[in-house]
Structure formats: C-alpha cells, structure tokens
Design a protein that fits this description.
This protein has 469 residues and is α/β, with parallel strands linked by helices. The chain contains 15 helices and eleven strands.
C-alpha cells in the first residue's frame, strides 16, 4: 500500500511535474518574448525614424513618378494634304509601334497650332509651329517648351519685274499675296515687311492668297508679288515659276542682316541648277531665308513621350533633302521657344540604355524605378552613415538629463536643511535612481549608467554624513 501510495504520490508528482514543465515552457516563452521586446527597444530610434522617412519619401515619389506615360497624344498639324499633315501622319505610325495612339488635328497652320496649344483646357499636347510665329501670334507661351526644330520651311518670294530688286522695301505700294490669316507664311511675311516699313493698312495692298491661288494671281497680273513657303513652295512649283516669263525669284542679298535681327531664321545658299539641271535654274547661286518648324509641347509633357517624339523626328526628318544634310534634324540649335529640359538631355545623351535595349513600356518602367529609388538612396545612405553618432548623442542626452537633476539636488543639499527637507531630497534622489534603472540603455552603453549610479551613491552618502552633524 505504501508502494501503491508512493506510486500514487509519484503519479501525482508526475502530473505535477507536467504542470511545472508547462509552467516552465510558458515562463521560457515569456522570457524569450521579453528578450525580443528588449532587443527591439535597443534598436536605434534614429534608424526607425530614417526608415519611416524613407517610406514616406517612397510613397510621395510613387505618387508623382510611378504613373506611366500616357498612351494617347494629340498633335496639331496643318491643312489637309500639307507637309505638316504628311509629317504628322509619319509620326503617328512611328509612335503606334511603341503603343502610343496619336490623334492628328488639321488646322489652318502655325498660328492656330500655337493658339490651341497655349489655350487652357485644350486637348492638344504637341504641335508643329513655324519659328517666329510666337512673336506675332499674341498668345501666352509661358507654359510651352520646344523639343527642337525638325525641318526647314524656306521662304520664296516671286515678283513681276523687268529686272531684279535687292530689297523688300522696293515692293512698297504694290499688291502682295502673303497668305491667309492663321498661316505661318502670313505671320513671317508681316514681320519681314514691317522691318522694311511696309504694314497693313498702308498704301501697300496685302492679299490673303497663298499656294496655287497666289501663283495663278501672279501669272494673271492680279498681284505683283507673292510669299510662298512650305507646301506652296514645292520644288515643282518653284521650277514652274522660274520658267514663267517676267517672273523673278527674290534673292535675300541682306540675308546676314536678317539672320542677325531674327534669330529663328537660317540662311540657305542654293547652288545654280538646283531646281532644274537641264535648264540650269536658277542660272546663278541664290540665297534664301528659312525659319525652321519646331516641335512644340506643353511643359507638362511626359519625359518618355518627349523621347519618343524626338526618336520619331530622327526617323522621319533626319534624311537628306535639297535643303538639308542627313542627320541635320532634329536639332536643338535652332529654336524660338525655350528648349525643354527633357529634350536638352536627349540631345546631349541620346536615348537611355534602357530605351536602347528594351521595349518602350518596359524601358519606361525601368526609368521610373531609377528616378524613384536613386533619390531615396541618396537620402538613406548618408543618414545610415551618421546614425551611430546620432544614436550616441541621443543616449548621452538621456543620461545627461539625470546628471542635471543630480547636480541641482546636490547644490540644494549644501544649504542648511531641516530633517523634512533632507528626507525630501533623499526621496528625489531615490526617484532619480529609479528612473536611471528604468532607462532602456543597450549593453554597449551600460558603463555610463553604472557610473551615474556611483555618483548617485556618492551624493546619498554625503547627505547621510551631513545628517549626523
């Protein structure tokens, strides 16, 4: 029975041992949790702050950077069948290969394009604008930037005379066809004529004709001179006019002066026979003036679309013609409006490595990730470098605060104290010591805590000695 009782006691002990093991397990879990909490408390707060700031910066950057480029673009071109529209259609095809849909809008020309682009709430994102139009269009272009020039728009002036003239001022008092309102030809003609003291409303009659209508009017002697540019001044039209009896092609003998006064103009020196080798037309070299056509965009145009448009410009407008050399366009050297930062970067460095080797949308994602991550790294890495110093300063500040309390208490203890005052000082000293013990200081800085406690004991002993006197 004793053995059975012992067995019962052992069995009971076994059950009790099981409970004790469970308790020990729970206690062990509690210890581990306590250690984990203590370890977490020892993580530098500066590190936590840096991580939080980095996360905030990441979210802010993601809000403004991670949005991909639009998949749709509206381009203001020119009249149906014009070179502006032809080039716009070529851009449409080039951007379609990258997954961007281009809507081509037909307009009257450069002036209307600029007005539409500058108008608030307009759907137009990009437009072809003849350089110099901004001076005469009378619109606010502060929100517009140039992506560069994409081709020349030569100006040709034909007039009826028995012998050549050398200055535009010699056309004063005659009938001059300068193109319809809204056209780049008219805008440029008005600027050049005004520079020669020929203005609207004066004795010189300015007629709203351009292209074939203007050419027929000159041949029929209904006008005395015509300004032609772009499609209206095609090589075929120029050749026909050079063959016409009594018709002269105006040569800009003052071309250098015009280029100096109007920076958006370029001098074009054409050799003899360039328009007709068989008839050698013109019979001698001739100098013309030509503004460029700029690719103008809103300042908010997405950088990826800027690169895509300039890449298309290189494909469409980069070849050699009668008026330009291969690779001459697009260019940032000839522009009327300020060149955009994205376009300037493109002309300097070309397409980024990602765009050279990856599809457009994937390259765009890579570029946005670089823009997103690099600035954050530039903030986080230097911050991590100074974290130890910041953390040490933080710990010293916490300990120094107790030293200030201790020094203030010691100064008070030097005065004549009553028993009640002395007990109050000892109670304050006890409170300071408890706060020191409760400080969450990592082991690497524990020596500072124990030195402080020694100083606390030193002040306590002094109070005890003075109490006995």
């Amino acid at each position: 029975m004793w053995q059975g009782g012992r067995g019962l006691r052992d069995g009971g002990g076994g059950d009790g041992g099981g409970e004790s093991a469970g308790d020990r397990g729970a206690a062990g879990g509690g210890v581990r949790a306590s250690r984990l909490a203590a370890a977490w408390r020892e993580v530098p707060r500066g590190f936590v702050v840096t991580v939080v700031l980095a996360a905030i910066a990441l979210l802010v950057a993601a809000r403004f950077v991670m949005e991909g480029p639009p998949r749709h673009l509206t381009l203001a071109a020119g009249p149906p069948g014009s070179r502006f529209e032809t080039v716009a259609r070529a851009y449409e095809k080039a951007l379609a290969r990258a997954g961007v849909t281009v809507t081509v809008v037909n307009t009257a020309g450069s002036v209307e394009n600029l007005s539409r682009l500058a108008a608030r709430g307009s759907a137009v994102d990009v437009a072809f604008v003849q350089a110099g139009t901004a001076d005469s269009a009378g619109v606010d272009t502060s929100n517009l930037t140039s992506l560069g020039s994409i081709f020349y728009q030569p100006l040709t002036i034909f007039y009826r005379a028995d012998r050549p003239i050398s200055r535009l001022s010699q056309l004063a008092g005659q009938r001059i066809a300068i193109g319809p309102p809204g056209s780049g030809t008219r805008a440029l003609a008005l600027v050049l004529l005004k520079a020669n003291e020929i203005v609207e409303g004066g004795p010189t009659r300015l007629v709203d004709l351009e292209g074939e209508a203007a050419r027929k009017a000159l041949l029929a002697q209904r006008v005395d001179a015509i300004f032609m540019s772009g499609d209206s001044a095609s090589p075929t039209t120029i050749r026909e006019m050079l063959h016409a009896p009594g018709i002269q092609l105006f040569e800009f003998s003052q071309a250098d002066a015009y280029v100096r006064r109007f920076r958006y103009l370029s001098r074009l020196d054409l050799p003899a026979g360039v328009f007709d080798l068989g008839e050698n037309l013109p019979a001698a070299p001739v100098t013309l003036l030509a503004p460029t056509v700029e690719l103008v965009a809103r300042s908010t145009l997405h950088p990826a679309l800027s690169d895509l448009l300039l890449d298309a410009a290189g494909q469409v407008n980069g070849g050699a013609t009668l008026l330009q050399s291969a690779g001459e366009f697009p260019t940032d050297r000839l522009h009327d409006l300020p060149i955009s930062a994205d376009a300037a970067r493109y002309y300097k460095s070309g397409k980024s490595l990602a765009y050279r080797h990856l599809p457009f949308w994937l390259a765009s994602l890579v570029d946005r990730m670089v823009v997103l991550v690099v600035p954050i790294l530039l903030v986080v890495i230097p911050a991590l470098r100074y974290l130890p110093e910041i953390y040490n300063w933080y710990l010293k500040t916490r300990i120094s605060r107790r030293y200030k309390q201790l020094m203030a208490l010691e100064r008070e203890s030097l005065e004549e104290l009553s028993a009640a005052q002395r007990r109050a000082l000892l109670a304050r000293l006890e409170h300071i010591e408890k706060s020191v013990i409760a400080l969450r200081i990592p082991g690497s800085h524990a020596d500072q805590v124990y030195v402080l406690r020694q100083h606390l004991n030193f002040v306590r002993e002094n109070l005890a000695r003075t109490e006995g006197h």
